[in-house]
Design brief:
The chain is mostly helical and 88 residues long. The protein contains 2 helices and no strands.
Length: 88
């Protein structure tokens, strides 16, 4: 049971790390605030494309955080259950 619990937690954690790295890579060229006039429409479209990609993966990022948190709860619950059973 222990290898399964740790494997599930490890996979969830790796997926979370991967999703955060991917989001960071997408947003590295994103500007926080830009004042553009009509001559910079190509930059405006580039920023809109980046924002659209980030919005598209944001649910996966949130889901990966919840999965990693659930995996952590699973690991802690298993060890608490094991401690409780040892002192019965």
């Amino acid at each position: 049971m222990v290898p399964v619990v740790w494997s599930v937690f490890g996979i969830c954690l790796l997926f979370t790390i991967f999703m955060h790295m991917y989001r960071a890579r997408l947003t590295r060229d994103e500007e926080d605030q830009i004042f553009l006039d009509d001559s910079f429409s190509h930059q405006r479209s580039d920023q809109a494309a980046i924002a659209a990609k980030v919005e598209k993966i944001e649910p996966l990022v949130k889901a990966s955080v919840w999965l990693a948190g659930g995996g952590a709860v699973l690991v802690v619950a298993y060890y608490l259950w094991d401690i409780f059973n040892q002192f019965k």
